[in-house]
Amino acid sequence: MCTxxxxxxxxxxxxxxxxxxxxxxxxxxxxxxxxxSQARGRISKFKLQRAAQKLLxxxxxxxxxxxxxxxxxxxxxxxxxxxxxxxxxxGNVVTCGSLWHCPVCGAKISEGRRAELQGGMVTHxxxxxxxxxxxxxxxxxxxxxxxxxxxxLATMLRKFKATRVYKDTMRKAGSKGSVRSLEVxxxxxxxxxxxxxxxxxxxxxxxxxxxxxxxxxxxxxAVFKExxxxxxxxxFDVRSGDxxxxxxxxxxxxxxxxxxxxxxxxxxxxxxxxxSRSPFDILRDYxxxxxxxxxxxxxxxxxxxxxxxxxxxxxxxxxxxxxxxxDEELAEGQKEKEEQxxxxxxNEQDWLAVLRNNARxxxxxxxxxxGWEGVQxxxxxxxxxxxxxxxxxxxxxxxxxx
Length: 402
Ligand SMILES: [Zn+2]
Fold this sequence. Notes:
Elements: H1 8-15, H2 20-25, H3 32-55, E1 77-82, E2 88-91, H4 103-126, E3 130-136, H5 146-162, H6 164-172, E4 175-187, E5 190-201, H7 208-213, H8 216-227, E6 236-240, H9 244-251, H10 260-265, H11 279-287, H12 291-304, E7 310-312, H13 316-319, H14 327-332, E8 340-346, H15 348-356, H16 360-385, H17 392-397
Antiparallel strand pairs: 1-2, 1-8, 3-5, 3-6, 4-5, 4-7
Helix pairs in contact: 3-16, 5-8, 11-12, 15-16
The protein binds zinc ion.
Zinc ion binds at residues 61, 64, 95-96, 98, 102, 104-105.
């Protein structure tokens, strides 16, 4: 039974509950505060996605988790429960698989990428290897358009990596390859695209860190040639990628367990620092009523569409034993399909009501806590609220807090 919501006796009275998930995962529940914050995070992901859908009506995200996949054969939407994780999800809905545009798919994709990279790092460490995190940035200001800034970044990276000195240095350092992530934030100096890169070295050269550090001036040269400006002390940063503590120290996040793999795969869930905003922070501000943030998000969405977030150098995936899986497959949860059971199907009309009330996150939360009975309960409240002045959530609020 839910530990966060209303008093148990009262809830039981209305739901007659034993939600499937609630019963099975009770022992493993985290603290109430954690549970509540997870619920809120999940609900807000769907609200945030709705904001992106309004801003990007022509993009795939506009259909994500709204449209049926097989409308002719099954016009309803299934509510699924993962027996292993205890998490609920929708079945028979379209997923957009867009890391950049969609907070819902983006979260699944980045978590999948993090897990595979983390696994690769374990394999690498077991072979005696080390990992370094290299961060490359460059000066920019408010007048730079994002499209120009991204084009310059691509040119500088290409030229930097094509130099003989870069290749020789990486070879001497024992590099087995690298994986680079693309990321962008927005702050008082405008758009700030940058890259984080994990460099995998074999551990044979004890001076590998110093060698990689020696490339600073060469990155500086590439930047100066392209932009006519000098990098500052943060323009080239390299540090051990083996210690999570260093990341927290560097990025100042109160995120225990934050690792190198998180740093480069989770750009979409990171919070901006020192007044800078991540794209989904910008979307959140749009949702709160800032039209200018809406325009910024559209600019970002246009420029990042189709871009790859992670670039593995040739052969590194094989070396790390990482299998190929597409963003779409991760967003669809292909790997978890066998662990899922169906709780029930929301019919077409009720699904339209769920959409109209922007309540997809709430439906999943209640499915997770109270099973199918819970879903039926709030659907009934939504039906009853049609044509009434009383919004559906007001009548369920005393039972469910999120
Ligand atoms: Zn999506």
